[in-house]
Specification:
Pathway: Carbohydrate metabolism; Entner-Doudoroff pathway. It catalyses: 6-phospho-D-gluconate = 2-dehydro-3-deoxy-6-phospho-D-gluconate + H2O. Keywords: 4Fe-4S, Carbohydrate metabolism, Gluconate utilization, Iron, Iron-sulfur, Lyase, Metal-binding. By secondary structure, the protein is α/β, with parallel strands linked by helices. It folds into 2 domains: 256 residues, no CATH class; 177 residues, 3-Layer(bba) Sandwich (Glucose Oxidase, domain 1). The chain contains 23 helices and 16 strands. The strands form 4 sheets. The protein has an 8-stranded mixed β-sheet with strand order 9-10-14-13-12-11-15-16. The chain has a 4-stranded parallel β-sheet with strand order 2-1-3-4, with helices on both faces. It has a two-stranded antiparallel sheet with strand order 5-6. Strand 5 and strand 6 form a beta hairpin. Helix 5 packs across helix 12.
């Protein structure tokens, strides 16, 4: 054993629960891997189509069975800041592959949407479902059976989880994830939030708000706050799918380019044609998934991953539950404070020691499984490093610093910011829900107040603008789950709720929708399961009902008798406006098939 007994116990429970499904998955992976070089099963006509557009040298290489071919799955588009830096990556990967004696082809593209653009708009109702579309699109790209390994170019919210699901579906292939990095620091995130609240109160105009937003989101790369996009990058590194130290290097820098080329060479090295064959379906196991959950809690990461990790694990035959995530949270300390959990951004986190420091601290104190397989080889210890650019233009690595560069951003395990993790599960007579506590001050973690019920975020915003919410209350926003309308994020509510809390009002949010990694200072019980449209008790709440949200005790309760709750009918909502427009009509089948949030909210 390499991890603490508490972590080992959760891992053993997951392993036992998953035994049958994992064994079946591994049988399928190894059966596919046993086909040797996959181009050898293609007919001459198949193969000719597969390399028709290649140059003469690549055609010659692909005509035989001994030259490895990398399939590139890319989420590039030039509208979104996080994915625009991927534009030159295929050429870099192809050059690096040729230099190493291999070939690389762009196997396919996947969609990449930005919740920051669609926030509060109809398009947000496609966001969660885009994860499963991305998994399917990746599968289509790889279905040509031309490849010995795959590299995945994706960064943001649903893109990386979708790519992981796709990669694990093709688990017989090695998989290397290549990040693009965060944008450089702009307007501090707390200042951006302050201007948003002023705008919500009508104290600044739209021009001032747009100026602040533009100074915050100002260049290529991921947003610098610690939301789902940057939580994705943390997960890929701590689960061993990135090369060590590569997650938070800024775009368009010599080191970023060197890391990209290195990742291509590593993908070639771990194919079945070499001596380090590392099919991703065998590499990612119960220990890797637990390491991801540990990292999520230790950094106060995105609540979206309480769904995505479950869906990702399921793609490998592993059955992860909210109870597992909650138990790990009780044993893992919070070591990072990155906005909205603090004032720093991810560039400050990286400068303070970043992933290398974090992984070393968690390993040394037994919170991580060290004895895992990664794309870099055996064990997680090689990830306790900093990546740097050597004089010859290659990547070199040095041990992570022994001390944090800023104890306000990154803490040692011996002196954590809090003794438990950043995410908790709430249970009670409304079902189960998720709360991110790392950004919520202790004095706001227990709220008892009457309910005010809304069936859309627009309804609540209208009440705020009308001056009807200047009081203590718990806002219940229901019919926002996967089956109702695709489970949009409700960040449009954040400024108004922040204003009310700053006025001294005791408030909280309860919803079957999402708030994501940007869940901030207002206590929010999200992902309430079952959702209102699926018979959930949240559909029985009425205006004025007393409620209690206790993030310390882990409870969410409607304070009425069981008999009264049982006697009520579920409320209904007119959802006809969510069924069409901005492509929503194409996703009617997804809404019908969508699973519960605590089961990954997947359509598979």
């Amino acid at each position: 054993m390499t991890a603490r007994a508490e972590i080992e116990a959760v891992t053993a429970r997951i392993r036992e629960r998953s035994r049958a499904s994992r064994e079946l998955y591994l049988e399928q992976v190894m059966a596919a891997a046993g086909q040797a070089v996959h181009r050898s099963v293609l007919s001459c006509g198949n193969l000719a189509h597969g390399f028709a557009a290649c140059g003469p040298a690549d055609k010659t290489a692909l005509s035989g069975d001994r030259v490895p071919n990398i399939g590139i799955i890319t989420a590039y588009n030039d509208m979104l800041s996080a994915h625009q830096p991927f534009e030159p990556f295929p050429a870099l990967i192809k050059d690096a592959a040729r230099e190493a004696g291999g070939v690389a082809q762009v196997a396919g593209g996947v969609p990449a949407m930005c919740d920051g653009v669609t926030q509060g708009q109809p398009g947000m109702e496609l966001s969660l479902f885009s994860r499963d579309v991305i998994a399917m699109a990746a599968a289509i790209g790889l279905s040509h059976n031309m490849f010995d390994a795959a590299v995945y170019l994706g960064v943001c919210d649903k893109i990386v989880p979708g790519l992981v699901i796709g990669a694990l579906t093709f688990g017989h292939l090695p998989a290397v994830f290549i990040p693009a990095g965060p944008m450089t620091s702009g307007l501090p995130n707390d200042e951006k939030a302050r201007v948003r609240q002023l705008f919500a109160e009508g104290k600044v105009d739209r021009a001032a708000l747009l100026e602040a937003e533009s100074k915050s989101y100002h260049g290529p790369g991921t947003c610098t706050f610690y939301g789902t996009a940057n939580s994705n990058q943390m997960l890929m590194e701590i689960m061993g799918l990135h090369t060590p130290g590569s997650s938070f290097v800024n775009p368009n820098t010599p080191l970023r380019e060197a890391l990209t080329k290195e990742a291509a060479r590593r993908a070639l090295a771990i194919t079945a044609l070499g001596n380090e064959f590392t099919p991703v379906g065998r590499m990612i196991d119960e220990r890797s998934i637990v390491n991801g959950v540990v990292g999520l809690n230790a950094t106060g990461g995105s609540t979206n991953h309480t769904m995505h990790l479950i869906a990702m694990a399921a793609a490998a035959g592993i059955k992860l539950t909210w109870d597992d995530i909650a138990e790990i949270s009780e044993h893992v300390p919070l070591l990072a404070r990155v906005y909205p959990n603090g004032l720093a951004d991810v560039n400050h986190f990286h400068a303070a020691g970043g992933m290398g420091f974090l992984i070393r601290e968690l390993l040394d104190d037994g919170y991580l499984h060290e004895d895992v397989r990664t794309i870099w080889g055996e064990g997680l210890r090689p990830y306790a490093v900093e990546a740097k650019l050597a004089g010859n233009g290659m990547v070199t690595r040095t041990p992570a610093p022994r001390e944090s560069g800023s104890d306000k951003v990154l803490a040692p395990a011996a002196k954590p910011f809090q003794p438990t993790g950043g995410i908790r599960v709430l249970s009670g007579n409304l079902g189960k829900s998720i709360i991110k506590v790392s950004a919520v001050k202790p004095e706001h973690r227990v709220i008892e107040a009457p309910a005010l019920v809304f069936h859309s975020q627009e309804e609540m915003q209208a009440a705020f603008k009308a001056g009807e919410l200047d009081r203590d209350f718990i806002a219940v926003i229901r019919f926002q789950g996967p089956k109702a309308n695709g489970m949009p994020e409700l960040h449009k509510l954040t400024p108004a709720l922040g204003v009310l809390q700053d006025r001294g009002r005791r408030i909280a949010l309860v919803t079957d929708g999402r708030m994501s990694g940007a869940s901030g200072k207002v206590p929010a019980a999200i992902h309430v399961t079952p959702e209102a449209l699926d018979g959930g008790m949240i559909a029985r709440i009425r205006d004025g009902d007393p409620m209690r949200l206790d993030a310390e005790a882990g409870t969410l309760e409607l304070l009425i008798s069981a008999a009264e709750l049982a006697s009520r009918d579920n409320a209904e909502a007119d959802l006809s406006g969510n069924q069409f427009g901005m492509g929503r009509e194409l996703f009617a089948g997804f809404r019908q098939l969508a699973g519960r949030a605590d089961q990954g909210a997947s359509v598979f």
